[in-house]
Amino acid sequence: MPGSQARSRTRDRNNVLNRPEFLSLNQQIRRDQGPGEGRGSGGPRRAVFRQQSQQEEPGVRGSRDSSEGGSAADGVVKEDCMQLNPSFRGIAINSLLAIDISLSKRMGMCARSHGSGAPLRSMVTLLAFTGHALPWVIGTLICLWKSNTLAGQEVLVNLLLALILDLMTVAGMQKLVKRKGPWDFPPGFLDYIAMDLYSFPAAHASRAIMVSKFLLNHLVLAVPLRILLYLWAFLVGVSRVLLGKHHLSDVGCGFALGFLHFNLVESVWLDSATCQTIISIGTLRWTPLL
Fold this sequence. Notes:
By secondary structure, the chain is mostly helical. It contains 13 helices and no strands. Helix 10 runs antiparallel to helix 11 (223-242).
């Protein structure tokens, strides 16, 4: 008997479940204890805290609820104040955009075929077509093919590069901004050719001011012709507003962009030798230097 008792004690001592951290696994849960109120779980403390919370005065709860409700209401009021009271800069920008849209729609009297400007629609359309990319690119290529002087070919090659630069830059900006016109007309066939699909900036205005500055700087013209050239560039931009294709701000930004293109082409002007190399490559008569 003593030997069996010693063996049972040794077995109990070597049993892992008899360790203090596993004692709770060998004991049954008492029915009078709620869930989470076992040994070592802080049951009495939780019961005392529950009793204190039950004995809490209703006035304290009401004040706490009112304070929480007041903080939530303050957050809503602050959010509404932020939405209803924007900054001065936002008000100014929104006001200018509203004025721009309103004036552009009022000036678009040739936008509809049955509007007040219907008799002038064909003439305004023809004036706008003079600022299209297609006649200028084709006309420059024809003049370059007919030209026999080195100076004339130099001017025409630089003009062609300026037209390509203006075409690609305006198309990229329009694709980036994607602003619709005041009357939201779908682009026509010629607009798809020139990649003039959106409103900002006005491609016709940019091209007209760039071409007029280019011709005035490289051609000797009389004063009346110079005035007419400036007037033509201005009327091309206005014609797009009359047709409902662009806003006034689009035309103004187009004028500024065309002036920037002119200055850029003048700063990187290609000399006669470079222009002759480009012409030789274009006509497949270029012989590489040995």
